[in-house]
Each structure stands twice: as structure tokens, then as C-alpha cells.
């Protein structure tokens, strides 16, 4: 066995775990690790803020299904990572954040930038650990990858004191490999019970959450749905788990990101098979309304998730892929392949009648028109990245998604500024794929410095800004308080000119103020991004006080625009 610098062992572990790109900022307390990375085949992108680095690693992980890695030095580098760790934990994203630290002997002496980042990070990680001995280095990192990928995936933080980083360890990469990750299979008895409940139900639906995508279980989901002819809905995190042009697609239910026909179909259902969904409050709304008149089967890899929000009629612990495969297999033995029946026909009727308009020609531009043009301009292989606010809600209501890992959204934590660094991570993961970041004007400003990263490393993607010059979601919430306070961002009276800002970064940008200009601007941006190998901004100026349809429960959604009831979709 060979004795080598322990950080070189860490770099070898990272490579063997499938990490080809990391995002971070070097600093004095993390330089031994950087020295080791320099000798590896891992690409490093220097971000402009540690939070941006975590979101880039998050985007890379969501796009690949692997463990993303972000690196920072000591002190505020680690505290800046907390938002990214929380985001990854909330959305079940496997990620490792690595921080430098003062030498062990100085930790109790208030050394420069010495902070107990392990204790700070514990509430927002699956595991937070400080490396105590150089000999532990490869094994702590192996365990970190195993924990990040196991069960309900999530983030890990590893803190590296400077003196430990400088140590050596005995390590031979040829003798080492990733630790196995358990894929828990369900017991046969609850599988049989679940299939019996599905066969007894008159109006069942399958609810696919983000766990279906994380488990790479879309094929198994489709097999079960098609055999039993059960309509499928998705949560916001589950968008892409089931193709939205499939005859069995039943829309999205919720109190914010929802379709009208999705809510109607859910309310008419009598049984819900939820797989990898956590029943988030923005999905369920009022629980009495959500639960009334239907039974629930809840499948989750994390046992403590079952019953956390409400008690299901049947709980099944298992990884989504083998569980859906077992359900499909049992269904094939229990019943011949079903033909579409009255319930499938009813869902199709709801889909063709309970619509929202997106064809507005109004000036200023109404936001739904932006998403209509996005659906038309970009193909099914485009990966969309979006964050939080009214533009996320409009996106969930109007954007179409057909493939897993092609609609990436920070769902539960909802940090502003997530989109641009996440898009960088996605494009690094798949340089040959088209990436579009849909941003709000205020969210963009949170981490707009990360545009410099994309410009420096020639990372091309399209940024579509839905600019209403307001903190739109907060302004809409304030309507219930009969106030409009502290939300006006009217740039005409001073502030940021986003087009000029992008040009200052050396990146092309265009502002759109007419609805018939959107399509041309999107086409221009796609061509310009690839030609220049740069991020390109299309800023769409939309109606300032536009509201998104939402409400407290699935049966009490306020529609702020006239809706075309009972108007079938045109062929």
C-alpha cells in the first residue's frame, strides 16, 4: 500500500464516485484540497458566491442523478452554503459541501474564520462531520457519498481542518470503490393489498412525486399506469416523471402550481396512489378538502415520511423503482390489461374543457403568453430551470414537460437566486443539451454575479426574465391585508437595467415589450447563446399587477383572468 497526501486520496474518491465537475471558491484554509484537485481530472469552476456554488452543484446533481460537490474555505464560506444545503435537503438532492477549517489546535482560541460549521449545518444536512485524522479521509468521503445517495437523498457537509488536510494516509485507489447503496424492496403483502385497492377503485389516480424521478422509475410508473389504465398526476417536483402529452396524464393538483382540470380530476378521484410524494402544503392546501371522499396509498423510501402529514389507508416502504415494478408485475397477474374506461374518458373531458387562456395579445404582456411561447419555442429535450415566486406558479400552470430531469425547480425551500447558478450546473452536466433558465427580475438580482461565471467559462444557456417590476407573489399575498407595501421595484425610477447589466458581463440581451416579439426574441437567444457560447437574456416586460390563480384549497381557486369553460381544445 502507498502512503499519499490524504487530499489526493479524497480527489481519487471524488473521481471514482462519478464527479467530473465541482464548484467553489479557493481560500487559504482549503488549499491542500485544491492542490490535490489540480492533479486530478476534475474540472473546477470558480463561482462568485458560495451559495451560488451550492446551487450549481445542486443543478448538476438534479441533471445527472449523481452527487454534486461544492467547495469553500473556512468561516463565512461555510455559513454562505447553508441556504444551498437547506435547499438540497428540502428537495432530496444528493450533494456534498466541503469546507476548510482552522487547524484543530486553534479551534478553541477563536482563530481567524474558525466557526463550528458542523453544528450550524446539522439541521440542514443528513450528516455533518469534521475530519479528525488524515487516515479517515477516503473513508469519511466514501461514507458521505453513501449517505447522500441512500434512502431519501440529501446533502452532507464535510469540514476539513487545515492541519488534517496536510496529512498523509495509506490508500490505493485500485483497491477501493463506492460503497453499495441499499435499494429497499417492498414486502409482497402490501403490494398485493395495494393492487387490490386499485382494482376495487372506480376513479383511481397515481400521484408521482420527485421520488419517482430520483429513483429513475418513470418507465415502471408508465408500465403500471398503462396496464391498469390509471390516470397519472405529478407534483411540482415530479414534473417530467410522466409525459404530459400521454393520454393518461391527469394534470397537476395544488393550490398554487396546478391546472384547473388537474384539481377537478383529483377532486373526482376515489383513490390516490402517491409514490415518492411528501404531501407538501402547496400541493394539498386544506387537508380536509384534499382527503375527503378518497383513500390513499403512500409509497416512500423513508419510513418516517409515511403518516407525517396525514395517515394513509395503506403505507408501503420501498424504493420507488422496485415498488412500482412490483405493483405492475402483481397487476399483470391479477388482471388482464385494461382498456380505457369511463374514468379515463372523464379525465380527457376535463383536460379538454377546464382550461386557462395563454393566447393573450394584450399590452402590456400577460404572463401566460410568455409560457405559451416557451412551449412553442423549445423542444422536449430542453431542460428548464426555475425558482420561486409568481413566475414559478405560472410555470407550473402553463409549461409542458415530457421527460424526467428536464424540469428543475427548487420546490420546498424556494431560495431566490437559484436559477442562474443551477442552470450553470445543468449545462456543465450536459453541455450538448439546451438549457433555459426562467427567472424573475428580483430573484435574478440575488445571485446575478454568477452570470460572470458562465461568461468566464463560456457556458451557453438562455435566460428568460419575466419582469413585472414587483415582488409579485408578496404583492398578491398582501391583497388579503388590503395593502401594497414595500414591494414596488419600478426600474423606470432608478435601479437596474438588466439588458445593460448583461452587456457589462459581455453577454447579449434583449428587452421585449410586445407579445408578438417574444417568439423572435427566444429564437434569437437560442442561436446567439450557441454562437457566442455565452448566457443570453431575454427580458419580457409583463403586466405589473398580474396575479396567478391560487387559493386555500383545491376547490377554492381564484381565477384572476376569464377562463374558457367548456371550450374543447382545438385539433
UniProtKB/TrEMBL annotation:
Matching entries from Pfam families are given as:
TPP_enzyme_C, TPP_enzyme_M, TPP_enzyme_N
SUPFAM superfamilies with a match to the protein in the record: DHS-like NAD/FAD-binding domain (SSF52467), Thiamin diphosphate-binding fold (THDP-binding) (SSF52518)
Similarity remark: Belongs to the TPP enzyme family.
This chain's protein is named Glyoxylate carboligase
Q: Which residues form the Thiamine pyrophosphate enzyme N-terminal TPP-binding domain?
A: 8-119
| Keywords for the protein's UniProt record, in alphabetical order | Thiamine pyrophosphate
List residues of the Thiamine pyrophosphate enzyme TPP-binding domain.
388-540
Domain (Thiamine pyrophosphate enzyme central) spans 191-327
Among InterPro entries, the record links this protein to: DHS-like_NAD/FAD-binding_dom (IPR029035), THDP-binding (IPR029061), Thiamin_PyroP_enz_cen_dom (IPR012000), Thiamin_PyroP_enz_TPP-bd_dom (IPR012001), TPP_enz (IPR045229), TPP_enzyme_TPP-bd (IPR011766)
Q: Does the keyword Heme apply?
A: no
Q: Which NCBIfam families match?
A: PRK11269.1
Amino acid at each position: 500500500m502507498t502512503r499519499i497526501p490524504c487530499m489526493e486520496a479524497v480527489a481519487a474518491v471524488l473521481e471514482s464516485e462519478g464527479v467530473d465537475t465541482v464548484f467553489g471558491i479557493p481560500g487559504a484554509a482549503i488549499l491542500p484540497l485544491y492542490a490535490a484537485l489540480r492533479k486530478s481530472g476534475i474540472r473546477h469552476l470558480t463561482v462568485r458566491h458560495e451559495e451560488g456554488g451550492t446551487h450549481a452543484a445542486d443543478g448538476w446533481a438534479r441533471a445527472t442523478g449523481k452527487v454534486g460537490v461544492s467547495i469553500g474555505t473556512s468561516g463565512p464560506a461555510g455559513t454562505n452554503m447553508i441556504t444551498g444545503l437547506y435547499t438540497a435537503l428540502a428537495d432530496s438532492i444528493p450533494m456534498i459541501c466541503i469546507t476548510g477549517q482552522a487547524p484543530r489546535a486553534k479551534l478553541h482560541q477563536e482563530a481567524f474564520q474558525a466557526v463550528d460549521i458542523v453544528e450550524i449545518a446539522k439541521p440542514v444536512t443528513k450528516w455533518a462531520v469534521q475530519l479528525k485524522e488524515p487516515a479517515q479521509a477516503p473513508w469519511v468521503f466514501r461514507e458521505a457519498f453513501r449517505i447522500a445517495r441512500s434512502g431519501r437523498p440529501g446533502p452532507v457537509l464535510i469540514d476539513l481542518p487545515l492541519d488534517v488536510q496536510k496529512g498523509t494516509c495509506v490508500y490505493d485507489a485500485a483497491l477501493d470503490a463506492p460503497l453499495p447503496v441499499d435499494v429497499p424492496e417492498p414486502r409482497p403483502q402490501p403490494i398485493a393489498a395495494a393492487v387490490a385497492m386499485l382494482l376495487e377503485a372506480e376513479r383511481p389516480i397515481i400521484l408521482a412525486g420527485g421520488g419517482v424521478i430520483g429513483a429513475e422509475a418513470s418507465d415502471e410508473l408508465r408500465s403500471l399506469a398503462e396496464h391498469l389504465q390509471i390516470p397519472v398526476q405529478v407534483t411540482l417536483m415530479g414534473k417530467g416523471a410522466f409525459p404530459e402529452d400521454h393520454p393518461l396524464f391527469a394534470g397537476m393538483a395544488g393550490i398554487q402550481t396546478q391546472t384547473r382540470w388537474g384539481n377537478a380530476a383529483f377532486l373526482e378521484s376515489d383513490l390516490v396512489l402517491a409514490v415518492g410524494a411528501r404531501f407538501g402544503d402547496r400541493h394539498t392546501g386544506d387537508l380536509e378538502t384534499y382527503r375527503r371522499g378518497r383513500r390513499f396509498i403512500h409509497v416512500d423510501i423513508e419510513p418516517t415520511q409515511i403518516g407525517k402529514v396525514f395517515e394513509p389507508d395503506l403505507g408501503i416502504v420501498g424504493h420507488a423503482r422496485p415498488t412500482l415494478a412490483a405493483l405492475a408485475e402483481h397487476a399483470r397477474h391479477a388482471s388482464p390489461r385494461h382498456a380505457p374506461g369511463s374514468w379515463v374518458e372523464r379525465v380527457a373531458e376535463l383536460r379538454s374543457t377546464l382550461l386557462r387562456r395563454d393566447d393573450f395579445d394584450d399590452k402590456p404582456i400577460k404572463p401566460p403568453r410568455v409560457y405559451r411561447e416557451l412551449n412553442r419555442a423549445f423542444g422536449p429535450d430542453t431542460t428548464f430551470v426555475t425558482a420561486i415566486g409568481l413566475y414559478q406558479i405560472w410555470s407550473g400552470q402553463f409549461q409542458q414537460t415530457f421527460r424526467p430531469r428536464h424540469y428543475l425547480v427548487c420546490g420546498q425551500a424556494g431560495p431566490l437566486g437559484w436559477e442562474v447558478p443551477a442552470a450553470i450546473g445543468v449545462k456543465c452536466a450536459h453541455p450538448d443539451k439546451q438549457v433555459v433558465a426562467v427567472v424573475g427580475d428580483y430573484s435574478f438580482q440575488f445571485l446575478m454575479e454568477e452570470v460572470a461565471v458562465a461568461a468566464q467559462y463560456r457556458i451557453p444557456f438562455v435566460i428568460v426574465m419575466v419582469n413585472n417590476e414587483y415582488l409579485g407573489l408578496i404583492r398578491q399575498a398582501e391583497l388579503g391585508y388590503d395593502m401594497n407595501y414595500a414591494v414596488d421595484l419600478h426600474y423606470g425610477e432608478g435601479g437596474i437595467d438588466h439588458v445593460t447589466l448583461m452587456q457589462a458581463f459581455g453577454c447579449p440581451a434583449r428587452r421585449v415589450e410586445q407579445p408578438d416579439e417574444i417568439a423572435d426574441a427566444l429564437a434569437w437567444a437560442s442561436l446567439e447563446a450557441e454562437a457566442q457560447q455565452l448566457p443570453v437574456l431575454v427580458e419580457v416586460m409583463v403586466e405589473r399587477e398580474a396575479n396567478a390563480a391560487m387559493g386555500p384549497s383545491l376547490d377554492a381557486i381564484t381565477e384572476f383572468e376569464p377562463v374558457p369553460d367548456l371550450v374543447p381544445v382545438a385539433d
